[in-house]
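User: Can you fold this complex?
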Amino acid sequence: MTESTHSHQAPAYIEFGEYSTHVPKNIPIALEQATGRFLGNREARIAEMPQWEELRQAAHEIRLHTLLNLDLYLELVEKQVVAAGGVVHWAVDAAEASAIVVDIARQHGARTAVKVKSMATEEIGLNQALEAAGIQAYETDLGEFIIQLAGTGPSHIIVPAVHMRKEEIAALFREKLGIDAPTDPLELAAIARRILRERFLEAEMGISGANFLVAETGALVIVSNEGNGRMCTTLPDLHVAVVGIDKVVPDWESLTVLLKLLARSATGQKLSAYTSFITGPRRTVGEGGAKQFHLVLLDNGRSRILQDPVARETLKCIRCGCCLNVCPVYKHVGGYAYGWFISGPIGAIFSPQILGVEAARELPFASSLCGACADVCPVKIPIPKILLHLRHRVVEGDEFEKPAAPAPLRASASLGRVALSTPWLYRLGTRLLPFLMAPLRRDGWLPALPPPVNRWTRVRPLPAFRGGFREWWAQRQRRNGDRDSRGSP
Amino acid sequence: MSPLDKNPVIENIRKSLGRQPGQAVEPRPAVLPPRPALEIQAEIDLFVSELNQLSGHARRVHQEQLAQALDELVQAEEIRRATLWKTPVLGNLGVADHLERLGVEIIPAGEDKHRLASCDLGVTEADYALAETGTIGLLSSPEKPRPVSLLPRVHLALLRAAAFRPDLAQVFAEAKGQGYLILITGPSRTADIELTVTLGVHGPKSLNVWVLV
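Assistant: Here's the predicted assembly.
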């Protein structure tokens, strides 16, 4: 087993730095393979689409427009879902959302539930809440089924068990299911199919999230490849969908833009195998589908994020996972380093806003700011800009939150600002530094420094200070001046 | 929450955005124009090629070849039990009769889900098709139950040329008033274990689409 430390409850503190110093060795290898394949397929899809950039721009505009008019679109969602015969619930936070779902399950006497892969239910820790109420919730996406057996959370938005090898999965099946499982991925998938088929047919309740929620008619849109999304929403008599308020799309026309981008960005497919559009409960007995439909609209801090004009673009996300696939940091540390259900660059900007910078203060720094994420994002979220915005919030605080960086770091940042903006102090510093460093210096490098600055040298040596920029510049000008006077062209 | 209560989520959103209740929605930004249609034979060619690339089985079938095509499918996939939609097209083509003559037991599509799950084959008729992605679209009604395209391990959809639409935009414009629409693009698949592509993990392993000509 990999040592996964993902917590099911919202974490009190995310130790990105600590975790990233002991990443299991197989993670970077597995991630390089998976993300490489997705990105290769994605490139091929984009090459076929001359209008890709126009699509991204339209998606950006539609998503931002939806967020800026979210109150009215949500009211329309409620009106249309109710008109279609569904029940709408509003949940201010994770605890409220879980309590609503548990209540619905109890009212219907449901003892088992089958679940579609859903980031919203991971966010609210729904499985644990159901379990505490004596209701067994079964994950049915193959990857989610595996990590549920392992007792961990997803390490990638699209392929939740990407970090596990087939040998580990076979051992897990043997241990938890008591089945003599071979190490062949096809056989392992067949075992999961057999077990889950019974659960689909027996469960009293299906639980899903949604990829989109169409305000125009109240339609829930669920994208899946395995067909488990269809099973969970077609077979049980009760269907409960837990959906973040950011998932709203104004109308079906807007949906065409987003659906054309989603699968191409996520896995490099043109469309996923199944896209379901469900509006309310079934209209006739004979057609199949759930008899009762409940929609739980989850806020959990999203409405608060909207007040920040820079950071609110985070909520444009359509959860394709492409920013994870291109991120050099994610590919080295894996999803668990980000400490919550959502990882990679999008996790690094989402979690600090939902959990607060106190709990997630390391995440805005978990990036080299290379910008690859912003280049591929299908809805053009300016992730590096938001990372910098949140770094500022962590260190200095802003109108939305108090600073969260440790006092010594804040103090040294303030000192640095004074030193760098006071010319005489800066010049004095450049004169003094070589003498201060001399005792520690070895051939132009500083191999070890005293605490607290030893955090750098624990990992790599620091290049020694070689003199001030002003002196170097003056010397360079003199050299160039000499050359010019010799009459070079 | 009763309807008379103030909705705290909506209240918070309005506070954050500085919006007043009842303030109008600004016009929605424009979307791109839909893909133009090719001529129908080219659309069919593209559809067949796209779906076959996804490990689906798409081909043109002449009406008089239907019995033979069904015979081949029943042999190849070892079909013993089947269920099918009651649409005028499937009825006129006599699909159920052909299958029965081949010794296949027919389970009525309205039967309980456990019985439908025991079927090897489900036969439907596509309401829509999109050539660009190799996609079929199915609606639902008492004659066209949803589980038929989901529970049996083999799915056969018959497709009339009239069901082709150039773009998602036309499908959505027609289907948005319906309670249910499913777009199917290839057989059920997963790559969740070491990225090994596995077909038929939950839905049908074999997707056959026969374009009627």
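The two ends of chain A are 67 Å apart (CA to CA). Chain A touches chain B through 98 residues (CB under 8 Å).
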